[in-house]
Amino acid sequence: MRLEHVILGLLALRPASGYDIRKWMEGKGKYLSYDVQLPQIYRTLPRLVDNGWAEFDLDPREGRPDAKVYRLTQAGRDALLDWARSPYEPSPRPADPDFQLRFLFAGQLGPEHAIAVLRTELDYRLAHFGEPGWMDFTALGLDPIPDIDTTWVRKLHLAAHQHGYASTAAYIAWLQLTLASLEAEAGLPPSPTPYRGPATTSPGTGPKPEGGNDPEPGHSPGRP
Q: How much is the pTM?
């Protein structure tokens, strides 16, 4: 994620000065966890102008220097759309700011962009959720100082890992619910609920689980 795309996404909503952009990031945008300082914004805005992606007007301020108010050009709209259509690669860290920014600023250009990002993120999380051995701390190699109780240490490690597991499970549930909601809003055929990623085999052709019973409707073998 580049700051240029964040600023282009904000300018697509309304003209803004560098101060306006920073104020938004400190206010309504702080939930995105994307911390950018005002000097970074002021250094980026002239590059957008040099690229032809933005232009500005001077807004006179009484008793203060005039403010530059930037707005998106057609070339800037095209650059934002090109970025929205580019492949999204999830981060190993759940709820990474890159996903949230892509979901918001690419998604605002149309339902297809938001839904594509959601699907990619959800597929990745499901594929890496509950990997074998995630609760096995018995093989944790320890050679502690005398004051440390290894049984207690393992309990703490397990508790910390369970917190991450529970947080990821809640995040996946949000992805599933949001995907279903946006598909309905866009008038698209719904994915299986809850959405469990792309099918790995054609219906009726995949291997059956032990016991010969068919998997539950909407449930792919091996999915949590």
A: 0.74
For 6-41, the pLDDT digits (tens) are 999 999 999 999 999 999 988 888 888 788 888 999
Tell me the CB-side half-sphere exposure of residue 13, using CA atoms within 13 A.
15
Sequence-distant (6+) residues with CB within 8 A of 8 are 48, 53, 54, 72, 76, 79, 80, 83, 105
d(CA 161, CA 127): 18
Burial letters for 150-187: b for 16+ Cβ neighbours within 10 Å, e otherwise? eeeeeeeeeeeeeeeeeebeebbeebbebbbeebeeee
> What are the angstrom distances between the C-alpha of 81 and each of 106, 196, 201?
7, 28, 33
